[in-house]
Amino acid sequence: MPRLPRWLLALPLPIVLVGLWQFAVARSTFSLIPPPSTVALTAWDFAFGGIYDYAYSHTLLGHALASISRVFSGFLLAAIVAVPLGIVLGRSAVLARFVDPTLQFLRPVPVTAWLPLAMILFGVGPKAAVALIFIGTFFPILINTVDGVKYVEPRLIEAAEMLGTARTAILTKIVMPAALPSIFTGLRISLGFAWVLVVVGEMTGVPQGLGAAIMDARNLSRTDLVIAGMFFIGILGFTSDRIVVAIGRRALWWNPNARA
Amino acid sequence: MLAREAEVAEAPPPALAVRALEKTYVSRTRDGTTVETAALRGIDLTVEPGEFVCIIGASGCGKSTLLRIIAGFETATSGAVDVAGVSVAGPGRDRGMVFQDYALFPWLSVAQNVAYGPTQARRPKAEIAERVAHYLAMVGLRDFADRYPHELSGGMKQRVAIARVLANDPAVILMDEPFGALDALTRSALQKRLLDIWTTDRKTILFVTHSVEEAVYLADRVVVLSPHPGRIALQMRVDVSRPRDVASIPFNRAKRLLLDAIAPDAHAEDM
Ligand SMILES: Nc1ncnc2c1ncn2[C@@H]1O[C@H](COP(=O)(O)OP(=O)(O)O)[C@@H](O)[C@H]1O
Ligand SMILES: [Mg+2]
Fold it and tell me: Which 8-state DSSP code applies to residue A3?
């Protein structure tokens, strides 16, 4: 039997789901949910224009770029702070004793609970959304980095020592590569979460962004546009995850467990 | 007096000297009290340059502890370890360790694993490449230089681990049940290969095993540890000419001798 390409196997489920959706809304004469065909037209118009010619025609790119820049600003800032901090905390038990209780206390606070505070500190606007993403993605990256560093196999460190690795080089030669799979797991989880948070952050009244578009569409009772916006967020989240996975695979080709 | 001093200066120091070594592990139990485990008591052991010494003993009698103290991974409670006349404090490149679970660096290729030690020592590039090629050929893995550890079988991984230690040129090679996790066929193939390597390189090897047959096959001298606490119960020279044939009469006579010395009544194969 010839092997089917993997992407082909992923297709039947969404086709079935869209079919069910069409079937469900067609049976009731008056439905609050538009059928897939209407959403498809709206999505096309949102992306390329030429169908409805209203305020949202052909505006997808601007909204998407606004959301993408917020997601990656917050995410990259969090990574730049959390990865080095995690490495230090994972290596130094003393420092961890100073910092860990505070972090463990802050961690269970739901990140959405930070929203009012973020809005007070950064105003209503893109900065609040970035701050929210920073806070929300910071902890998964930090915790996975600390774990990866802390649970490096002691054998590997012993092997490096008996082969003449200088004490100061153990961190870069052994600990960091050994912790990389765990760090990547943290980055991947975080980036997915960042797409959740950007929508929350943009629902606070920023003019641009997919979250803002969805919120406005809801106020205008344009459920088709709400669903179209959800669709594009899904596409962007999916694409950014694929990019992280591809980078991870290149960096972690040696790890048999990293075949996501 | 003068003559005696000259003699002392001329005699090369032993490759390895363990003197009055004791180790007590102190561990904390759940209710906060401490428990002491006497792992090693009064260990005195000398290994000459180029000698192949096997340490044998039941599980839990302190074989790994002894090797780990010599390697510098563990500190002794008292006593001293000298390598080539120099006192040991912490791990160092003069003592190479081959672990039972290989401990290869999974993010490095086979060649990079073997090159790791010389690279840390900042040897010239050409010399490193030459050593890697030499030792990979020696363990029969020339064609696997660019593979990664997860692509190799257990026996191949252990050959990489051996090449990695050889390429670093230590004074003493420490091996802690290196073939213990391998199947019988792979195990005997690797024993033979290790002996071939030792015959050409004449490295000093301290090899831990719990198999009487493996010890008699490999060693110039067998050191038997007894448990609780670990002490040296006896030492026996293996006077069987090499290459040794495990089916031959002299081999089995030596094996019988060792078995009787360890446990005069029991007829145990493995300890
Ligand atoms: N890190 C440790 N902490 C406490 N006890 C230990 C530790 N390592 C080994 N021991 C104890 O020391 C004794 C010797 O162990 P080990 O050297 O591993 O023996 P072997 O390698 O001969 O099986 C055992 O009783 C073991 O339980
Ligand atoms: Mg052991």
Answer: P
Averaged confidence pLDDT in chain A: 91
Burial class (CB in 10 A: 0-12, 13-18, 19+), B18: buried
pLDDT score of A193: 94
pTM above 0.90, yes or no: no
SS3 string, B90-136, reads CCCCCEEEECCCCCCCCCCCHHHHHHHHHHHCCCCHHHHHHHHHHHH
pLDDT band at A5 (very low <50, low <70, confident <90, very high): confident
Q: What is the spatial distance between Cα B261 and Cα B258, in angstroms, rounded to a whole number?
A: 5
Cβ pair B105:A156 closer than 8 A: yes
Question: Using CA atoms, how far apart are residues B68 and A175, in angstroms rounded to an integer?
Answer: 21
**B169 interfacial to chain A (CB closer than 8 Å):** no
State yes or no: pLDDT of A24 exceeds 90.
no
B17-76 pLDDT, tens digit per residue, is 999 999 999 999 888 899 999 999 999 999 999 999 999 999 999 999 999 999 999 999
Q: Is the pLDDT of residue A15 over 50?
A: yes
Give CA separation, B141 vs A24, A224, B192, B196, B250, in Å: 63, 63, 16, 15, 34
- Of residues A158, A166, A177, nearest to B107 (C-beta): A177
Query: For residues B162 and B98, is the Cβ–Cβ distance under 8 A?
Result: yes
Tokens 């079937």 map to which residue? A23
Which residues have a Cβ under 8 Å from the Cβ of B43 and sit 6 or more positions away?
B18, B20, B21, B22, B66, B79, B230, B231, B232
Residues of A in contact with B116 (CB under 8 A): 160, 163
Exposure string over B122-145, b if 16+ CB within 10 A, otherwise e: ebeeeebeebbeebbebbebeebb
Closest-CA distance, B75 to chain A, in angstroms, reads 14
ipTM above 0.85, yes or no: yes
Of A179, A201, A181, nearest to A189 (Cα)?
Answer: A181
DSSP string spanning A19-43? HHHHHHHHHSSS-SSPPHHHHHHHH
Ligand number nearest CA of B24 is 1
Cα–Cα distance, B160 to B173 (Å, whole number): 14
A7 touches chain B (CB under 8 A): no
> Can you read off the two tokens belonging to residue A224?
């088709």
